[in-house]
Each structure stands twice: as C-alpha cells, then as structure tokens.
Amino acid sequence: MPQHQPDGRPTAVRELVDSRDLEAVARSLHRRNAEHRGDWTLDGGGLVRELQDWPAERRVRLLVRLSEGLEETAVHAPPECRGLAALNVLLAQGLSARQLAPWREPFLAEAAGRLALWEGWRLTALVEIELAAGRQLPDAVVATVRRSAVLASDPAELPPLARQFTEPAVNPGEPWADRALADLAAAGPGARAGWRELLAHAATATGAKPTATWLRAGQPLVDAVGPERLRAAAVEWFALTGEPRRDAVASFHRSGPALHDPDPFNWRALQGLAALLALTPPHPDTARALATLAETALIRCRGLGPRSPLTAAATIRALTALGGPDARTELERLAGTLTYKPTLKAITTALTTRNS
User: Fold this and answer.
1) First-to-last CA distance in the chain?
2) Model confidence band, residue 255 (pLDDT cutoffs 50, 70, 90)
3) Are residues 179 and 324 in the same domain?
4) How buried is residue 86: exposed, middle or buried, by Cβ count under 10 Å (0-12/13-18/19+)?
5) Considering the entire predicted model, what is its pTM?
6) Which domain holds residue 103?
7) How far is residue 52's CA from residue 178's CA, in Å, rounded to a whole number?
8) Count of domains in the chain?
9) Whole-angstrom Cα distance, residue 320 to residue 297?
10) Are residues 123 and 180 in the same domain?
C-alpha cells in the first residue's frame, strides 16, 4: 500500500470530529478513504486517533454506519472496501463486547442465520476485531465465516482468517456433521485428538484427486484412528448426507432456507474422508458407504443443480483406488442409476481401466 503524508488540515479534522452529524463524518471518511486508496497507515492526518477518543456510544454508532456502508461499497466501489474494513477494526479497538453490542449482536445474528455472506468484508472486520480482543465466536458464526471463505471471491484476507478456527472440527447444522461432532464429544481424550487431526486434514482436500503428498500425510492419521473405526464412522456419517439441515439458515444461492444446500466446508471434508477411506483395506461396507456419498452428492438442489459434483467425482476416484470386487459392484450399480454425465463418464473410465 502506498504511504501518505498527513493532509495538513488539523483544523478541518477537529471540525469534523467535533461535528454531531454522524452522516457527515461517515461521508467524509468515505471520501478520505478513496483519496488515501484505503491506506490508513498514517491515520488520515490524525483523524482516526481523534475518533478513537470519542465516547464509546458515538464510536459504535459510527461503526454501525460504516459497516452498513461496506455492503453498498462492495457493489459500487469494491477497491475501497479494504480501507473501510480497516476503519471498522480501528474504531472497535479497545471496546468490550458489551460496548460493541449495538453493532456486534445484530451482525452475529445475521451471520449465524445465513449459509454465507456474499460480501465478506464485514466478516473480515468482525473476525479481526474478535481475534484481537481474544473473544470466541459462536460455532454458527465460525461456520458462516468458513463457508463464506470458500464461496465468496473477496476479500482475499478472509480464507487465512477462517483457517485460524480449529473448532468445531466440522460445521454444525448438517445431520452427518452433527453426528460426527457428537461422536467426537463421546470419544476419550486420546481418540478425540486423533479424530480431530484426521478431520482437519480431510478439510484441506482440494479437488477430486488428492496429491501423493496429501495422501502420505493422511496415512498415519488413518492408522492412528484405526481403519476399522474410520470405516464404521463413514458408514454412519455418509448415510446421513442426504438428510436436510436441522437449522434453516438462509440459502446463498436463492431465497429461502438452505435445507439441502451443501455446506462447502463440510463437503470438502467429505471429499477428504472419501480419499482417506481409499487408504484402508477393501471392505464391502466401505464400498457401499462411498457409493451412498456419490448418490447424495448428486441430489439436485433448486438454484444450484447437483449438490456437489466434485464430491461425487472424489468418491468415484476413491472407489477406483479402493479396488476389490465390492468396489467394482458399486461402480457398476452407480453406472445404472446415476444420470449426471460427468460422473457417468468417470465411472465408465474407472470400469474400463479395471478391465484392461
């Protein structure tokens, strides 16, 4: 970011800070943000420091106004969002959760009630503020942060912030994930740690074909949990992937609740679990569980189409890697029941390869 010298207008700064017109202050901050190209390194000529001396109630009212403005700016002037988000963080510095409540509580409720936010700058500011204060976000909000980091194209700062949340292991809300979280809670401390490491690794899966490095890192995690325990868990978890969400968060893809919309963070973990299952010895239960996941991944969702073609592709690859007559039987069955052409093509290729 370019560095800027103070604007040399201390009188104008004082007049603005002394103004009782919050709208005028907000407009001025928007204008200065554009002039500074979002760089508040030198404090905008002392303006931010002056605003931080305001009473908490006035600071929070201004924070609410600037936060609302981020949504408008994301539509009309996206390059200015980074600076406005930084202003949100600066204005909140040193304020407690109680003092921030008029801004914080409605936003937490909004975030918890959505599958994802299309505009991620407000979430980025919220996470930075909460992490800096050492506060823990509710699990439902962590879930929205994670999902937004996958679905939203901006800001680039959100995904690394989302990766700082290691709990919960998967996002609550989907029945399979709720069951997984309940199983972890019921496990002993040693087993729980092993499952958390395995699920954390599964959630880093990218694409239908895992790299050799990723698989090598996953093998000791599978061994630590135990191939039989992993298989048994997958049978139960995958069987629930076709069930609707228990919490009716608003859809990211259309109006209405996201009952069958896939949680992109969780389904990335499912892709990873499918790949890790292929590292276990062939077993009919494993093959059936993978086939079940392929089918539920292709359930059509209004406004979205097939729920997760990438997960379906990952399960077909896992069945191929698993090998054995049971995997072949499931591939042949899927070839006769699925209609999604890219997945059918992958199945045909897998069966042809096994025959050659």
Assistant:
1) 57
2) confident
3) yes
4) buried
5) 0.90
6) 10-162
7) 42
8) 2
9) 17
10) no
Which regions of the chain does DSSP assign to beta strands (E)? 300-301, 305-306
CA 199 to chain centre: 15
Residue pointed to by tokens 């988000």: 85
pLDDT per residue as tens digits for the range 4-43 = 444 444 566 667 677 778 888 888 888 888 888 888 876 6
CA 166 to chain centre: 12
| Closest of 119, 138, 137 to residue 128, by C-alpha | 137
State how far the alpha carbon of 309 is from the alpha carbons of 234, 292, 346, in Å.
19, 14, 11
**Nearest-CA neighbor of 301 among 341, 257, 238?**
257
What is the Cα–Cα distance from 315 to 309, expressed in whole angstroms? 10
List the structure tokens of 282: 């062939």
Q: What is the pLDDT of residues 283-323, one digit of tens each?
A: 999 999 999 999 999 999 988 999 999 999 999 999 999 99
pLDDT, tens digit (0-9, with 9 covering 90-100), for 112-159: 999 999 888 999 999 999 999 999 999 999 999 999 999 987 788 999
Q: Residues 154, 183: one domain?
A: no
C-alpha–C-alpha distance, residues 43 and 134, integer Å: 24
Of 121, 138, 162, which marks where a domain is finished? 162
Same domain, yes or no: 93 and 185: no
Measured between alpha carbons, how far is 74 from 69 in angstroms, rounded to an integer? 9
Does residue 3 form part of some domain? no
Neighbours of 136 (CB within 10 A): 11
Tokens of 178: 């709720």
